[in-house]
Amino acid sequence: MKSVKWFRGILLIFLALLFLNSCRKDESELYLELKREPVLEPDYSGVTIPVNIAPLNFIIKEKGVCFRVKATSPDGKVLSVISPDGIVRFPVKSWKRLLAGSADGQIVIDILADENKEVMTKFDPVYINVAKEPADPYLIYRLLYPGYETYLDLKIVQRNITDFSEKSLVENQLLNHNCINCHTFSNNNPERFMLHIRGDMGGTYFVDGDKISRRDLKTDQLNSGAVYPAWHPGGRYIAFSSNNIRQSFHSSPEENIEVTDLSSLLVIYDTEKNILSPVGESDTIKYMDTFPEWSPDGKYLCFCRAIQYKDGDSLSSIKYNLMRKPFFEESCSFGNAELIFDARAINKSVSFPRYSPDGKYLVFTLHDFGNFSIWHKEADLYLIDLQNGETAKMNINSDETESYHSWSSNSKWLVFSSKRGDGLTARPYFAYIGSAGKAGKPFVLPQKDPTLYDRLVKTFNRPEFVTSKIKFGPRDFESAAGESSLKAIWSGNN
Predict the structure, then answer these.
(1) Can you tell me whether residue 17 is helix, strand or coil?
(2) d(Cα 140, Cα 143) in Å, to the nearest integer?
(3) Is residue 301 within 8 Å of 278, Cβ to Cβ?
(4) In this structure, are residues 446 and 452 in contact, taking their beta carbons and an 8 Å threshold?
(5) Domain ranges of the chain
(6) Backbone torsions φ then ψ of 192, nearest 5 degrees
(7) For residues 350 and 342, what is the distance between their CA atoms, to the nearest angstrom?
(8) pLDDT, tens digit, for every residue of 303-316?
(9) With a cut of 70, which residues of the chain have pLDDT below it?
(10) Sheet of strand 349-355: strand arrangement
């Protein structure tokens, strides 16, 4: 037995020496300078990252039998990696030490490629900007296949963005394969949030501290349940829209599905009194209102509004404007609607408004028509600077769909879903928001194995930042699903 272990040890040492010798170690040797950066996947060149992000592992898409990678911080720390196949993985602890010395500066990455020739290939350095402001350490997202006809494998995942650890929060395999959606947090708080579950275990599940409760927010006065939630900053009220949705299918192979409201209205839920009320409207014109969002001071309810759909109207004629209503918390009542952004005037439509927590900016999605932008290739993100009222298309967009987005609690980081990789599966991208709302070059959520996005045919849906780890797991929600639901009381006071 000892001889077998001894032989294995000698073999491992031999293989290690063989690998090291295959990559020349003397950097003073001759090399050919290509005068260009190497092609990396993901593309991390020139991005701006938070000081607490996980290692930016990547694939070098260049020829070579061995690659030498050296990352250097502004204070002189060096992290070196040798890769025989171009797949580069930085050790987490060493990477964190590198980041600690790079805040408000740049990491410089030098790459040499050995092609078994007389000279090695040297590329121009890759520069990564490191912001001093951290992002919230956890990202919550729904992971599912990008179809629409089945939910056999659907889960909500919490991922620690400072390393690669992740854990399921909810799994629909424990909930009779029912759909799970619309996880929404109160002020990025992992101890106060809610989510919807459909089907025979249906209801709205509320997490408050160490307790999960199940409630039924569908009343006889609503054509459908309360969806698309937004927590009031005070934590007591939640605004929802109640939507009568239709799915249509395009005949064009370039397009897929269209999700459209036939009718919708806004309601507000009092979590303390278990009362559901309509958000009143004084205008005599019939509208469809959806996607509520509170201003950070709680004084306004922002939402998307279109003129009521009528039979015979084309789907492409449905255009949503961005609106708001003043909210009077003492009486739980609303004022008249005000226009924020007139998308209809430019033949466009708005969805997913999200305020930055500091109240300086509002980001929304702009697309050709309708309100369900995740199926619209032309969907882009726009930013309103609330300090001067200017609206502009953000410089973080691509030629593919940009859709759902949310903010880190310090208002410095925006995470958004983008299909820029393959046009089908959405991935979470991070963008630094600097002074005057200027955004840094975005980067995709780093993975321990940088080949994951090429292999994973699943989409990352509704990414949300939270400030710490959620202590509940799939079995806790399975247990809560066995409890009876508390039915909301309807009140027509608004």
Answers:
(1) helix
(2) 10
(3) no
(4) no
(5) 32-131, 138-489
(6) -145, 100
(7) 9
(8) 999 999 888 888 88
(9) 1-29, 147-151, 245-260, 493-494
(10) 349-355, 361-367, 380-385, 390-393
343 secondary structure, DSSP code: S
Q: Give the Cα separation of 126 and 157 in Å (integer).
A: 32
* Number of residues that make up the chain: 494
The per-residue b/e assignment along 51-64, b for 16 or more CB within 10 angstroms, e otherwise, is: bbbbbbbbbbebeb
Amino acid letter for position 450: P
Burial class (CB in 10 A: 0-12, 13-18, 19+), 9: exposed
Which residue from 408, 407, 406, 405 is spatially nearest to 418, judged by alpha carbons? 405
- Tell me which residue of 290, 296, 359 sits closest to 322, measured CA to CA: 290
What are 40's strand-pairing partners?
60
**Residue 469 tokens, joined:** 């780890």
314 closest CA partner among 373, 355, 368, 366: 368
Given this structure, which CATH class describes domain 138-489? mainly beta
The pLDDT tens digits of the residues spanning 119-145 come to: 889 999 999 999 999 999 999 999 999
Question: Of 358, 362, 365, 367, nearest to 416 (Cα)?
Answer: 365
Rounded Cα–Cα distance for residues 86 and 17 (Å) = 19
Q: Is 0.70 topped by the overall pTM?
A: yes
d(CA 14, CA 79): 25
> What does the alpha-carbon distance between residue 236 and residue 331 come to, in Å, rounded to a whole number?
13
CB neighbour class for 28 (10 Å; exposed up to 12, middle 13-18, buried from 19): exposed
CATH architecture of residue range(s) 32-131:
Sandwich (2.60)
**What whole-number distance in Å separates Cα of residue 191 and Cα of residue 472?**
9
Q: Rounded CA gap, 314 and 310, in Å?
A: 9
Using DSSP's 3-state secondary structure scheme, residue 123 falls into coil
Amino acid at 287: Y
Token duo for residue 68:
């030498």
Q: Which parts of 318-438 are beta strand (E)?
A: 321-328, 333-334, 338-341, 349-355, 361-367, 380-385, 390-393, 402-407, 413-418, 427-432
Q: Residue 227: how many CB atoms within 10 A of its CB?
A: 18
3-class secondary-structure state, position 386: coil
